[in-house]
Structure formats: structure tokens, C-alpha cells
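DM between two lab members

TW: hey, do you still have the 4-hydroxybenzoate polyprenyltransferase, mitochondrial entry open?
JB: yeah, one sec
JB: this one, 417 aa:
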Amino acid sequence: MALLRAAAAADLLRRHRRAPLPLLLSALSPPPPTTPESCPDGPSPVAPYFAPPPPPLCRRRRSWPPPPPPPRVSSSSYVGRGILLPATFSIYSPLSTSSSASPDGSPDEDSSPPHPSPAAAPPSSWVDRWLPQAARPYAMLARLDKPIGTWLLAWPCFWSISMAAMPGELPDMRMLALFGCGAVLLRGAGCTVNDLLDRDIDNKVERTKSRPFASGILTPTQGVGFLGLQLLLGLGILLQLNNYSRILGASSLLLVFSYPLMKRFTFWPQAYLGLTYNWGALLGWAAIKESLDPAIILPLYTAGICWTLVYDTIYAHQDKEDDLKVGVKSTALRFGDLTKHWISGFGVACIGSLALSGYSADLAWPYYPFLAAASAQLAWQISTVDLSDHLDCNRKFVSNKWFGALIFGGVLCGRLT
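TW: and the structure you got?
JB:
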């Protein structure tokens, strides 16, 4: 019996020495796929590669199929909620509707894409690119980002100064520079007054609701202080002119301060703007001659007023729907569907008055080809403008800088010849 027991123990020991390898492999092997029929509540795959699979273990409420393994994450990306995103992605990047800045408003360099995105719009003007942030609202208030208004104010001054020059001589360059600076300051002062008086109207008009007062960026007190600074600088320019010009220039302030109110009382605020914007036609001649020559200056002043009625009526068609809502008036509303007929008449009167003024000033023949080119430019504006298209109205309005430049070139050539 003892011998039989020893033999059985030895046989059992030999069997256990051969078993560890398959057992170890079965414990380390991943499970093969199983069919749903093997476990109605959702199988949990557990089986070795080298050993016969044991019966599947069932776990309740397990989703099927099992979720895929997470993707490998590189150093330039991360995974959030199953979506592979670039490391530079940010909700404040130019791809989103928010600005490229952190929530507190400070620039976030890490949120910028490695390459410029075509959706990222460049700064709209030199004001955004070059001026410090604190100065930008004041520059916007003076419309420094939109120089077309300054050109429209300066051109009649330049026409008049050039006509007042002696035959064969260039106009007074110092006077041209003074009137150029004065145009910037006076135009800025006029826009400040306009926005102060119209701040309750501007916030109801789509085109103007982002202006500094309408949007609340600047307070009226800050605007009054800025207006005082502009007028003080303008006074410094006015004091460099002769006494006749000082009185004539100071009298223009009545027009500048009253113009913004005209749209509340009359359908002809554009005509009042013409009286204001073309005052330089009187002042430029007076600054050179210390007097006024009605035969030359009155036709020139009339031409400027008719020109203003053309371009500012086109401009007013951008706001005609909003003007009706808030109850303000304009020639765009007054003329309606007959706008092109009206501004064609004003255009003819403008060219005729310029021809009469040049003839009275004894300008030589080169003036008239330039006048013909300016006539063609004005006719192109009136004939091609789409008064129902805001962008086209603005394009035609801005193109008037070339009309003024053609007249100025004609006066120069007519005086030098």
C-alpha cells in the first residue's frame, strides 16, 4: 500500500510540473470576439488564445459593441470627448465668431493658429493698426479712418486758392498746407458735433450704431472736451490768415454747429451741407486776395453746392429705410424714384458753374479738357449708381475724390499755361 501511494504521488507531481505554461498563457491572452447569442445581456469576451475558451461571462447593461480603444495622442494634439483637436485650437481663434483674445480681453498668443487663416480679417484701417487703443475712439469720432470727407471739404479750398494765383505761377503751397490741416480739423469738429446731437438717432440706424457715442464707448463729456481741442487747434490755423479771412472763417462755425439739426426740420439738409462744406471756396480766395470777386467766387461756390447735392443725395440713399423709421428727412426721401433726374440737373448746374467761374478767372484752355473729364466722371456716377444697393452708393460717393482732383488739376494747368 505504501508503494502504491508513493507511485500515485509521483505521477501527480509530474502532471503539475507540465501545467503552468498553458495556464499562464491562458491568463495573459486577450479575449476573442463572441457572439451576442452566447450571452443575452451582453457578453464580456474572456478567452485565451492557446487554451479552449471557457464559457462566456455575462455582465448586465453592458453596451455592445465595446467602445474602440482611444487613439494615440501626439504632442501636437489632445483628445476631448472623442474628438481629436489640434493643440492650438481655441474658442477665441479667428475660426470662431469671437475675437482673437482671451476672455478677459487680453491678447492670447497661444490661441493664434500656426498659419494665418483666410477667415481672419485684417484690421479695417490704419487707425486699428497704428494708433493706441485709448486714442482709437477719438480717431473714429473725427472720421480719420474715412478720409473721403476731408477730401470733399478740402477740394473747394484748393480750387479757390489755385484760381487766386497769378497767371503762370503755382499756388501758395503754404496756404494749401494750412487749408489741408484746417480741413482735417474742421471736418473732425463737424463730425463730433453731429454725433453729439444725433447720438439718440445713431443707435437706431444700422450704419451708425457703432459710432463712439451711440455705442457708449465715449461719453458726451469726453466728446465736448475733444471738440474744444479741435476748435483750439483750428483757431491756431485761422490766426495765421489775414483779418478778412479770420472773420469769414469764424462765421462758418454757425453753419457747422447748426447743420446736424437740419435733418429734423427740412428735406433739404444736403443743400445746407453744401453751404457748409464749400465755404472754403470763399475762404481760399479771401486768404490770398483779402477780398472776394463775386464773378469768380459765386459761381465756384454754387458749383460746390450743386456737387454736394449730387454726392450726398447718393450717400443718403444708404439710410433711407432707417431715416423713415426714426423720422429724419433727406433729399433721398424727397426725390424718391426721381432721384436720378434731380441729381442729373444738379450735375449739369455744377459743370456749368465751374465753366463760368473758370472763364471769369481767365483760366487757359487746358482747364476745359479737365472739366470735360470731370463731367464724364460725374455722369458715370449718376448713370450707373444702383440706389437700392448700399455698397454701390458708398462706392460712387467715395469716387468723388477723383472729381475734385480733376477740377484741381484743370485749374492748375489753366493757371500755369
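TW: got it. Residues 18-30, 34-51, 57-65, 72-122 have pLDDT under 50 and may be disordered. The CA atoms of residues 139 and 342 lie 35 Å apart.
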